[in-house]
Amino acid sequence: MAFDTTRNYSKEAEILKVLGHPIRLKIVSGLCTQECNVKHIWECLGLPQATVSQHLALLKNKGIIEGTRDGVEVHYSVIHPLVRKLVDVLSEN
User: Fold this and answer.
1) How far is Cα 17 from Cα 13, in angstroms, rounded to an integer?
2) Which DSSP symbol is given to 21?
3) Global pTM?
């Protein structure tokens, strides 16, 4: 086995750290399936709106999701291709 000693995996490690929280992983998994707004997310997860908003803000700041404004609502979707691949792999089990 050969190890890639020239590649810096810090970006990938940061993504894994962010996705390491169960709530964020649930949010990202759901958003890989469909784009939705914060109200739909907190209703589906049964969590307070403030909690979901904090997790969404972190995911957005890390470039994993983006929000698109539609009138007064913001619809979130996953934009990071590596995250989509990770969710697909995790969903196989």
Assistant:
1) 6
2) S
3) 0.89
pLDDT digits over 34-72, tens only?
Answer: 999 999 999 999 999 999 999 999 999 999 999 999 899
Coil/strand/helix, residue 41: helix
How is domain 16-91 classified at the architecture level of CATH?
Orthogonal Bundle (1.10)
27 and 56 Cβ atoms separated by less than 8 Å? yes
Within 13 Å, how many C-alpha atoms sit on residue 17's CB side? 8
Burial class (CB in 10 A: 0-12, 13-18, 19+), 62: middle
CA–CA separation, 77 and 73 (whole Å): 13
Residues recorded for the chain:
93
Does residue 40 contact residue 76 with C-beta atoms inside 8 Å?
Answer: no
